[in-house]
Design goal:
Number of strands: 10
Strand content: 15-25%
Oligomer: single chain
Strand order of the largest sheet: 6-7-8-3-9-10
Structural class: alpha/beta
Shape: globular
Low-confidence stretches: none
Number of helices: 10
Largest sheet: 6 strands, mixed
């Protein structure tokens, strides 16, 4: 489970997260949404023990992230938005290192690595250098690494970034299976159609504060809209898309008109 109470984080005088209360139960796929700069990444970094909160508290898998960070880290898996890999290693070498850090060794580690990459049809690339992998292949390795220790809590920040449609289907079905087995999943994505389909509950934050919570249908109904995408736009202050498009086209046309007016 994931729980925050009054969670806040300041960088100097700027508040990235303000008095955020969250509660995510085992078995939930929890959508965590917000525009760029809303505080999503800061919140995830606190929950994965990468940075400390300025105020408030957070617990993951029953442990306080500030007082017991190692206990938290043992129980979570994390796919960051922009994950870095040791590209001088092969996929097998990298995942073996991750397995060993998780206390998984020998034949069991080898079997686990093969099973995970087989999900994505990547067994043939096990001994290929990560530097030779495509963006999508690297993402599949990152997802496999996050799943290596059979985590109780899974943090996914844009997990479908760069992967092909077939692999995306595998990931979505895998998340549903993990949730059915009682795992807690926090899912961040800008692909709102995916969030709407797979997340059991959603929170939207803006400027570090929670502005909506519920199912996609509940949030849409409360905002007088018909979809999560429309509700998100209304809640986070996005202007009418037609207006934005007209303004952009006018800006693009302006230099062209000016050039024609020149003698």
């Amino acid at each position: 489970m994931i729980e925050t109470v009054g969670l806040s984080r300041y960088f100097g005088e700027k508040a990235a997260v303000q008095d955020l209360d969250l509660s995510v139960e085992p078995g939930e796929i929890f959508g965590f949404l917000g525009p760029n700069g809303a505080g999503k990444s800061t919140t995830v970094k606190i929950l994965t023990c990468m940075i400390k909160p300025s105020r408030g508290s957070a617990r993951v898998a029953g442990f306080d992230v500030t007082r017991h960070p190692m206990d938290v880290k043992k129980r979570l898996g994390y796919v960051p938005e922009a994950g870095a890999l040791y590209e001088a290693l092969t996929a097998r070498e990298y995942l073996t290192m991750v397995a060993n850090l998780r206390g998984i060794e020998g034949k069991y580690a080898n079997r686990k690595i093969t099973e995970l990459l087989d999900l994505f049809g990547m067994v043939d690339a096990l001994d290929q250098l990560l530097s030779e992998h495509s963006k999508g292949m690297k993402q599949k390795v990152l997802i496999s690494a996050a799943l290596m220790g059979n985590p109780e809590v899974l943090f996914l920040d844009e997990p479908l970034n760069g992967i092909d449609a077939n692999a995306a289907l595998v990931v979505k079905e895998l998340l549903r299976e993990l949730a059915s087995k009682g795992r807690t999943i926090l899912f961040c994505s800008h692909i709102l159609e995916v969030v709407e389909r797979i997340c059991t509950r959603i929170v939207i934050i803006d400027q570090g504060r929670k502005v909506a919570e519920g199912t996609a249908a509940q949030i849409a109904a409360e905002t007088g809209t018909t979809s999560l995408e429309q509700a998100f736009a209304r809640l986070t202050g996005v202007r009418d898309t037609a207006e934005v498009t007209r303004g952009m086209l006018s800006a693009l046309d302006a230099p062209e008109r000016g050039a024609k007016d020149e003698p």
